[in-house]
Automatic annotation (TrEMBL):
Residue ranges constituting the Galectin domain according to the UniProt record: 19-150, 166-265
Protein name as it appears in the record: Galectin
InterPro entries, per the entry: ConA-like_dom_sf, Galectin-like, Galectin_CRD
PANTHER family per UniProt: GALECTIN
SUPFAM superfamilies according to UniProt: Concanavalin A-like lectins/glucanases
Gene3D superfamilies: 2.60.120.200
Keywords: Lectin, Repeat
Gene Ontology MF term list: carbohydrate binding
Length: 265
């Protein structure tokens, strides 16, 4: 996949809840808010707000509020000028007590399309122009591992369900703050996998990432002129979120403007 983050945006990892932080560069059509987290077994409710300012009193373009109250539901709403709009109550609960989740809020021309664990949940129509959004707020009974703002560059399209081994050109090459996201499943009994950023002409490998499941380590390296460099083994699989069931790799690469192949072993 070829994704870019809004200018100046950096992912937020393990924020303290309640959390309120800016979205540098704002939001626009085609951008997604990606949140990894988990809810406790004794959850009652939590909320995620997309704010039009950086204070609790700011207008809220999207209020996302799962409630475990005996009649489990997710409430969507907005707030403008201090007044709440009409609630949209979805009497279906995509979150499970004591379980981890992946929430994606995709900004479309029609509204906020929410997905939980890869399944479409609800589209909340725009009531406030999305260009006014400046911050994100998370509060309540929830733990968050990461918050990421991801935008799809207009000239690129996501590459889905590709067989491995796989390789493709990266139009425009890599440059600072370009983000590559690879999402897939790791079969039980897997031994290792590899992700390479390859210089197209010389076939040198600028970045080699090799998760080794049985060793519980991630090997990083480079190869130039046919010779491998010194291996870096400081990362464990636990630190980067790999397991034998589910794999999510987020690699933010800082390189010069060169043409690369993205190659999956």
């Amino acid at each position: 996949m070829a994704f870019v983050a809004p200018p100046g945006y950096q992912p937020v990892y393990n924020p303290r809840i309640p959390y309120l932080g800016p979205i540098y560069g704002g939001l626009r059509d085609g951008v997604s808010v990606y949140i990894q987290g988990s809810v406790p077994k004794d959850i009652t409710r939590f909320l995620i707000n997309l704010l039009c300012g950086e204070s609790d009193s700011s207008d809220i373009a999207l209020h996302f509020n799962p409630r475990f109250d005996g009649r489990d539901k997710v409430v969507f709403n907005s707030r403008q000028g201090g007044s709440w709009g009409s609630e949209e109550k979805i009497r279906s609960m995509p979150f499970s007590k004591g379980k981890a989740f992946e929430l994606v809020i995709m900004i479309t021309s029609k509204g906020f399309q929410t997905k939980v664990d890869g399944k479409e949940f609800f589209m909340f129509p725009h009531r406030i122009p999305v260009e006014q959004i400046r911050a994100i707020q998370v509060s309540g009974d929830v733990s968050v591992q990461s918050i990421n703002i991801i935008g799809v560059s207009p000239q690129y399209q996501p590459l889905l369900f590709k067989a491995v081994p796989y390789s493709c050109m990266i139009p425009g090459g890599m440059y600072p703050k370009r983000t590559i996201i690879i999402r897939g499943m790791v079969p039980y009994g897997s031994n290792r996998m590899g992700f390479n950023l390859v210089v197209s002409r010389s076939r040198d490998i600028a970045f080699h990432m090799n998760p080794r499941v049985k060793e519980r380590v991630v090997v990083r390296n480079n190869r130039e002129g046919g010779k491998w460099g010194k291996e870096d083994r400081e990362l464990s699989l636990i630190n980067v979120g790999f397991c034998e069931r589910h794999c999510l790799c987020v690699a933010q690469i800082f390189t010069s403007r060169c043409h690369y192949y993205l190659f999956f072993l």
